[in-house]
Design goal:
This protein is an alpha+beta fold and 153 residues long. Helices cover 35% and strands 25% of the residues. The longest helix has 34 residues.
């Protein structure tokens, strides 16, 4: 079996790695595809230092994002109940539904903090009451907020 070659990727390659990753590939794949198209370069001590520096910068950036998410979580959990007014029919059933966009708008209106609606998980809300929504702020940080659905006047 042929020896594998270690390369550093110059750009993201599907199912192989991201920019700056060290990868072990077959010699033919490296010689015939990656190197001629300038998708990767050979590993040298200088390039290894650059890769390590990039990884350290990325780690620091992720740590800053996580710290910011922890601060947002503390601010969101101080809010208490968020009130959303909806039209009500028979048996306290609401018309329509409460969406993650509604929750994001209420949070932005009360705290001036932008929250991505794709990170909000809410239960199916079909009637008046209090519900708990989970907001994913970072891959490791999520906050829970209470949503109170009230009748609009």
């Amino acid at each position: 079996m042929a020896k594998r070659i270690q390369l550093v990727l110059n750009q993201d390659i599907y199912k192989l790695g991201k920019f700056g990753d060290l990868v072990d590939v077959a010699p033919g794949y490296a010689r015939n595809y990656l190197l001629p198209k300038n998708l990767a370069t050979f590993v040298t001590p200088g390039i290894l230092k650059q890769v390590e520096r990039r990884r350290e910068l990325e780690r620091q950036r992720q740590e800053e994002l996580k710290q910011k998410a922890v601060e947002q979580k503390a601010a969101l959990e101080k809010l208490g109940n968020l009130k959303i007014a909806k039209q009500v029919g028979e048996n306290n059933a609401i018309f329509g539904t409460v969406t993650s966009q509604d929750v994001a708008d209420i949070i932005q209106g009360s705290t001036e903090m932008e929250v991505d609606k794709r990170g909000i998980t809410i239960p199916d809300i079909g009637s008046l009451g209090t519900y708990e929504a989970e907001i994913k702020l970072h891959s490791d940080v999520s906050a829970k907020v209470n949503i109170e659905v009230v009748a609009s006047e």
